Amino acid sequence: MPEQNAPATFSMVSKWTLYCVGIGLVAGIGAIVFHFLCDVGFHFFMHQLAGYHPPSPAGEHSLFEDPETELVRYMLLILPCIGGLVSGFLVYTFAPEAEGHGTDAAIDAYHNKGGLIRARVPFIKTLASVITLTSGGSGGREGPIAQIGAGFGSFLATKLKLSRRERRIMLAAGMGAGIGAIFRAPLAGALFSAEVLYKDPDIEPEVLIPSGMASVVAYCTFCAVFGWGSLFHSPDFTFSDPVELIPYILLAFVVTGFGWLYVRFFYGITGLFRKWKIPNHIKPAIGGLITGMIGFFLPQTLSFGYGYMQQAINNELSIMFLLALCLGKILTTSFTIGSGGSGGVFGPSVVIGGAVGGVVGNLANVCIPGLVGNPGSFVVVGMAGFFTSVSNTPISTIIFISEMTNSYHLLLPSLLVCSISYMISKKWTIYVKQVQSKIDSPAHAGDFFVDVLERIRVRDLKDRLVQPTMVRNDMPLSRFKEIFSHTKQHYFPVVDSRNRFVSIFSSTDIREILFDKGLDELVVMGDIGTREILATTLNEDLNTVLGRLTVRNIDSLPVVKAGDPYTLIGMLPRRAVIDFYNGQVEAMKKRVEEG
Prior knowledge:
The protein has 595 residues and is mostly helical. The protein has two domains: 15-445, Clc chloride channel (Orthogonal Bundle), CATH 1.10.3080; 456-582, CBS-domain (Roll), CATH 3.10.580.10. It is 60% helix and 5% strand. It has 21 helices and five strands. It has helices spanning 2-49, 73-94, 102-112, 120-134, 142-159, 164-182, 186-195, 205-226, 245-275, 283-297, 306-313, 319-338, 346-367, 376-391, 394-405, 411-424, 445-455, 477-484, 507-510, 542-551, 574-594, and strands at 471-472, 491-495, 501-506, 556-561, 564-573. The strands form two sheets. The chain has a three-stranded mixed β-sheet. A two-stranded antiparallel ribbon has the order 4-5. β4 (556-561) and β5 form a beta hairpin. The longest helix has 48 residues, at 2-49. The protein starts with a helix and ends with a helix.
């Protein structure tokens, strides 16, 4: 058997390796193109027109070296509005599903659309996001690049005529590859694509390996052009005293509170714009105008803001600046994306969480300086805790922040903060297309049905077995007619003189001869029963049983003793199988609701 399966296994591995390499290359190239377009757009809009020159993170450098020019504040007021107008036209004219943050669209496609994303969506999402973000709109890069990678994975699977399951896997692999490349966090990208699909602490295991391979290729492709290393550079933060966990526990509650505020405000604004009876095409322009009004006073809340996080990690920003950045970023992101603008929500979450962490770290440093030596460590942990509180992705978020900051000595406090944040924030999420668990995903409806049936054995239904009336194989038809007239039994097991179960027949099998009086003494029941018995044992699972019931469309199956097919234990009705399954599902749902 191993020798026979080896070629098929090798062929499957080779095929999927080729698919994942292709997805990774396209996702990496897409990340390169998107990053380049963002750099060009930001240079033209923010640098040239508005004179706005925010700092850059240490691991990222602009392709353009512009001299510092005077800030033109009124341009910060109108540029987001113009960007929103152009973005709204592109999205609502050509691909309305590209509105908002693209990760949610990819999650929805995975669960509800068989992994199908229209081929035009990644292109429209790219252009709309570049215009939105580089003209001052607040958002992240992960949403657009998630749809670029996911869209190509879906497109490739469709062209190759793969199954819906395989298309879902390739969609998720593309999403993880794109995010892993653009944030220089390949491991986190792979984990994120498998974890972000569900609210519960669950992952999609079949996605992990394809997403991992694609993410490695995408990351290498992207870094070959823009350089290697992490997005942020961090000092050598260390953790050596368990007492230091006390202020980190406080940080967990603070970032979770701000996470709740972010989600509530974000979807409050989203709901208002959706109810507003005006053309969708101009809603992002209105959201952009409000964003510009905030940016007029707080320029640091516009566009990406990653450079300010680098300064916060280096402990170069004041408490008031960080607080204004945190609250302002919540507002600008909500109005930019909630109005229908195009951009991701992970990037702003990193900035908001880092700013909150910086505020708590600086305050703790003032109040208990002996315990908190470097507030920059709270910036890093705050990033992780905040995004966990809004996304339900604690594991991938910890890896994300560690890879993005190249800081692995803070894994312990990050794990503590993310665990607390996750437990408190389970009732809300920024990704509304997440489903609770695999039970609730249409993508796994059939899988769940099979999984539940395979966990149940026939012995679990032993009290539901029907004890039938046995018929001797030498019984004449005339005697059987007397029995048949007083029973509602449909299947009749036939036994021999030693009471061994040797054949079976149904009332349908004897219908043609039942009223023929000339056969009463000529026919015995052993002549009618079939010896090709379709039976089961107490050890078999219900999935196998249901398969046997349906293969011949029968309503009841004989249960025989394991290793002894001549000993009949009872008959298992199809209805008993279905009723027991429904009872198990209801019990599981009740446990989930109570939990």
